[in-house]
Amino acid sequence: MYRRNVESAEYDQVSKKWIVKAKNVGGSDEIEKYFGGFLVVATGETTDPYIPQIEGLSSFNVNVLHSTKYKSGKEFENKNVLLLRLGILAWRFH
């Protein structure tokens, strides 16, 4: 659903389906309805990774890795690691 803004998502107990209303922002501004058995929330929190500037961090000889770049823990075997977990992405490291 490109160029759509989700206006609402409701689960209908009778039909056992999600009803998603989305506005077509590609020109028509029409509200469209979509129905599905599952709802996947993919809002793009990781599309613009942000690493805050932390005072004194540059004085350490360390690698800083944002969770969007994390693939596996293999590269961290037998190393001391400090993990700062904030927000929705914290679950990825469990």
From TrEMBL:
<dbReference type="Pfam" id="PF00743">
    <property type="entry name" value="FMO-like"/>
</dbReference>
<dbReference type="GO" id="GO:0050660">
    <property type="term" value="F:flavin adenine dinucleotide binding"/>
</dbReference>
<keyword id="KW-0073">Auxin biosynthesis</keyword>
<keyword id="KW-0285">Flavoprotein</keyword>
<dbReference type="GO" id="GO:0050661">
    <property type="term" value="F:NADP binding"/>
</dbReference>
<comment type="pathway">
    <text>Plant hormone metabolism; auxin biosynthesis.</text>
</comment>
<keyword id="KW-0503">Monooxygenase</keyword>
<dbReference type="GO" id="GO:0009851">
    <property type="term" value="P:auxin biosynthetic process"/>
</dbReference>
<protein>
    <recommendedName>
        <fullName>Flavin-containing monooxygenase</fullName>
        <ecNumber>1.-.-.-</ecNumber>
    </recommendedName>
</protein>
<keyword id="KW-0560">Oxidoreductase</keyword>
<dbReference type="InterPro" id="IPR050982">
    <property type="entry name" value="Auxin_biosynth/cation_transpt"/>
</dbReference>
<dbReference type="GO" id="GO:0004499">
    <property type="term" value="F:N,N-dimethylaniline monooxygenase activity"/>
</dbReference>
<comment type="similarity">
    <text>Belongs to the FMO family.</text>
</comment>
<keyword id="KW-0274">FAD</keyword>
<keyword id="KW-0521">NADP</keyword>
<dbReference type="GO" id="GO:0103075">
    <property type="term" value="F:indole-3-pyruvate monooxygenase activity"/>
</dbReference>
<dbReference type="InterPro" id="IPR020946">
    <property type="entry name" value="Flavin_mOase-like"/>
</dbReference>
<dbReference type="InterPro" id="IPR036188">
    <property type="entry name" value="FAD/NAD-bd_sf"/>
</dbReference>
<keyword id="KW-0670">Pyruvate</keyword>
